[in-house]
Amino acid sequence: MNRVVVTGMGTVTSLGLDVNTTWNNMLNGQSGVDNIRLFDASKNETKIAAQVSDEFENEVNKICKVKIRRCMTRATRMMMLATDEAVKDSKYDFKKMENPVRAATIVGVVSAGYTDMERQKSTANLIVKSMANAAPGWISISYGIKGPSFSVSTACASSAYAISLACNMIRYGMIDVAIVGGCDSSIEPDYIYGFNQIVAMSTNNSSPKEASCPFSKNRRGFVMGEGAGALILESENSALNRNAKIYAELSGCSFTSEAEHITAPAHDGIEMEKSMRYALEDAKIDINQVDYINAHGTSTKLNDKCETLAIKKLFKERSYSIPISSCKSMIGHTIAACGAIEAIITIKSINEGMLIPTINYNIPDEELDLDYVPNHSRKHKVNVAISNSFGFGGHNATLVFSKYKK
Questions:
Q1: 126, 97 Cβ separation under 8 angstroms
Q2: pLDDT of residue 391
Q3: Strand pairing report for 4-12 and 248-257
Q4: Which domain holds residue 398?
Q5: What b-and-e string marks burial along 252-274, b requiring 16 or more CB atoms within 10 Å of the CB?
Q6: Interval 336-379: pLDDT, tens
Q7: Measured between alpha carbons, how far is 82 from 71 in angstroms, rounded to an integer?
Q8: Which residues are the active-site residues?
């Protein structure tokens, strides 16, 4: 079975249009949450979100021709920008592949993003824009990839599922390399209204920067974010044969379904625990080897409680000595993109020996008593880390990354 390694990474978030900018801003505990600028949110209960800088459009203009850009939604354009960074970072020349069928592109997508806001700007290219498989399709066309090309839709676990699927394809020799990731741009009236209906979203409009507070007692729901994340996965042999820089090994993965409730996790965290346990078993890594957990950490009452219970069930007494942090405290919940973005931040933790903080952790919850790396980044040696993604519909996914050793 082939080992799978990461050789390229790219992100677009509310904290930056590339990996290093996003990473450095997270280390500094900055928040990308602010008042919504994409539309008039005055009639919405929630008036805040983690919106990507408008500058991203100028960057997209540099890599996509006007005719092609006009066929893409905002979410797809973000995915193209993150992919451009990842491919350049990997130095993989897809167009010179001897057999382009040996490459894949798999993207987590909840919605193509062809919303009423997009229609108000233009109704041209309606079908192409609204295709759920538009992002992997455009990536495939742009880089001449002729192997598997498809999207995955499993709510907030979508891009973690995409990464897991590509990992197994490489392991079992179906492909040699894959562009994987996810994108989302759901900062629009109906989505905000819909999440307010089910009381899942923060309404702390007076203090946007403090609204996302995972694991804190005063958490009152998640903050919508947007963005994209892209990774280049390769077989170890492929990477070594071209002397590629290897960021980390994707040692294990799991994806499971809770079969419990359409929006709520199992109350005791047992299914989340299984997701982590199966991923570690897949990686053949003992629980005592895990140095860090990048949590799903949404800032909702149920998710944070259940994820904490799941960690305690799996790691028992050791759970108190494993640092845990949430990207969503700073960039909000990027839905289909979160698994990929958070995987990249997890890999950066391995490479840099630093942990991002969970900001806005000011009021400890007596039920949630683990080490959530509160408010300030921390030096910490990381050889093995896991990244969790849990989505509506009971979709759970866990990725295990390790420091690469030949």
A1: no
A2: 97
A3: antiparallel
A4: 1-406
A5: bbbbbebeeeeebbbeebebbbb
A6: 999 999 999 999 999 999 999 999 999 999 999 999 999 999 99
A7: 18
A8: 156, 296, 333
As beta bridge partners, residue 48 has 35
With tokens 């010179």, the residue in question is 96
Average pLDDT estimate for 231-254: 98
Q: What is the DSSP string of 61-100?
A: HHHS-HHHHTTS-HHHHHHHHHHHHHHHHHT--GGG-S-G
Per the structure, the count of domains in the chain is 1
Q: Is the pLDDT of residue 119 over 80?
A: no
Residue 112: per-residue pLDDT: 81
Q: Kindly report the backbone phi and psi dihedral angles of residue 355, in degrees, each rounded to the nearest multiple of 5, phi listed first.
A: -115, 135
SS (H, E, C) 330-361: HHCECHHHHHHHHHHHHHHHHHHCEECCECCC
Instruction: Give the domain CATH number at 156.
Output: 3.40.47.10
Residue-by-residue DSSP string for 250-289: EEEEEEEE--S-SSS--TT-HHHHHHHHHHHHHHT--GGG
